């Protein structure tokens, strides 16, 4: 409605339909494109979580995937005996299947950046998808991993 207020004349019915169609297509295509670029799609081919996750979860987390794809406050991260759980919040889930990546498919490396320490996780031995998380979340994951899977 605000957009229409900027126009001197209201849009015609075909223009309104075109605007609505563009919004719907964008709402569907953009999340799929982001999942493709970030590597989430590639991980989902092998690590799709088909069962409810059992373990400790933290909602509204941030992560950065390859090509600078930032997932800000929209990722649910979990740690359990089976592995690392990643899921998007329901409104952002389109194109992003929940993932459960076994611990033996993950390598981690601490890294110092200008903004502070981060951990770079490499997800999937074959896929090699990089995911950066802050050190605070990495410590929570490590602690939950020890509680749920005491033998490494």
Can you give keywords for this protein?
single chain; 152 residues; alpha+beta; PH-domain like; 7-stranded antiparallel β-sheet; 35% helix
Could you characterize the architecture of this molecule?
With 152 residues, the chain is α+β, with helices and mostly antiparallel strands. It has a single domain (40-148), classed as PH-domain like. The protein has helices at 2-6, 13-38, 40-47, 135-148, and strands at residues 56-65, 70-79, 84-88, 99-101, 106-113, 116-123, 129-134. The protein is elongated, with a radius of gyration of 19 Å.
Read across the widest sheet, the strand sequence of neighbours is 4-3-2-1-7-6-5
What top-tier CATH class fits best? Mainly Beta
Order of helices and strands: HHHEEEEEEEH
Secondary-structure content class: alpha+beta
How many strand units?
Answer: 7
Say what the CATH topology is: PH-domain like
Into how many domains do the coordinates divide? 1
Question: Can you name the CATH architecture?
Answer: Roll
Helix count from the secondary structure assignment: 4
Give the CA-CA distance, first to last residue: 56 Å
Rg, Å, rounded: 19 Å
Helix share, percent: 25-40%
